Amino acid sequence: MEEIYLIGNWKMNMLPADVLAYFDKFLINLRKYINTKKEKRDIKIKTLDAVKTIFAVPYIDMFYANLYANEEKRIEIAAQNVFHIDEGSYTGEVSPLMLKSIDIKYSIIGHSERRKMGETSKDIFQKANALLKHNIVPIICIGESKDEEEKKKTKEVLKKQIKEIMENINDKNSMQKIIFAYEPLWAIGTGKHCSKDKANENILYIKEVLKEEGIENPKVLYGGSVNAENAREYIETKNIDGLLVGGASLKHTEFLKIYVEIIKVLNKE
Ligand code: PEP
């Protein structure tokens, strides 16, 4: 069974005290849901194992979030960003070595909110190389603006974004691990999600370009105003390997509903 990723991007939200409250409730409800399914013999372990549930949390929350992840193996913790050098005089930065030291296995890079602050393709491939060196999976965000979409330049923009990064990834073996997230800028935090057909078409295209760049079995997620109502349609769509969820991941009840929608699709309910 193919893996489906459910990644919650908390952005710059959640104080450590909120993390404790969130995970206490989220994990109780998650376990209740899973146990009920198991009691009714209504689910296979391999279905549960197929869902990779990951929370991309602010650095300040990582310590607490990790306590829960260590206790509940069904969730993992990611960074939302990283620096490209392991140590040195870089005030305010956090390195891949530091993430590795607390067993963080994923980091988002190239999120459009960071690109807006000046992050370039060069920054992104440097970060990707630095993460891969430590066996941390880069989750690289790409996507077109509203203007580019209206001018029918989506594919051109996506290809350029991918090539600028992938042509500079050093280790051709470890690059197989990279996950991409297609996040049209106009869909992020706007409530205007991309139609499933458009998302599917663009993700299929992204996969073709990634294959040209040497990724044999590319994993590409969709992100942009995903919620419990629309999650299912993306997961049912052939080319989409999971969801990157911003706003809707901040409410543990909503995020769990999205998880349940994924399980329902995998469980053919
Ligand atoms: C995101 O932050 O990556 C995102 C997709 O946000 P939202 O779900 O709120 O659109």
The succession of helices and strands, N to C, reads EHHEHEHEHHEHHEHEHEH
Gap from first CA to last CA: 16 Å
Number of helices: 11
Uncertain spans = none
Give the proportion of residues in helices. Answer: 40-55%
**Average of per-residue pLDDT values:** 97
Query: Helix/strand/pairing class, anyone?
Result: alpha/beta
| Ligand species | phosphoenolpyruvate
Q: What strand order characterises the main sheet?
A: 1-2-3-4-5-6-7-8
Number of strands: 8
**What's the main sheet like?**
8 strands, parallel, barrel
Shape: globular
Q: How much of the sequence is in beta strands?
A: 5-15%
Instruction: Calculate Rg over CA atoms.
Output: 18 Å
Care to describe what's here?
With 269 residues, the protein is of the alpha/beta class. Helix content is 45%, strand content 15%. An eight-stranded parallel beta barrel has the order 1-2-3-4-5-6-7-8, surrounded by five helices. Strand 7, helix 10 and strand 8 form a beta-alpha-beta unit. The longest helix is centred in the first third of the chain and has 24 residues. It binds phosphoenolpyruvate (PEP). The site of phosphoenolpyruvate has 14 residues, from strand 8.
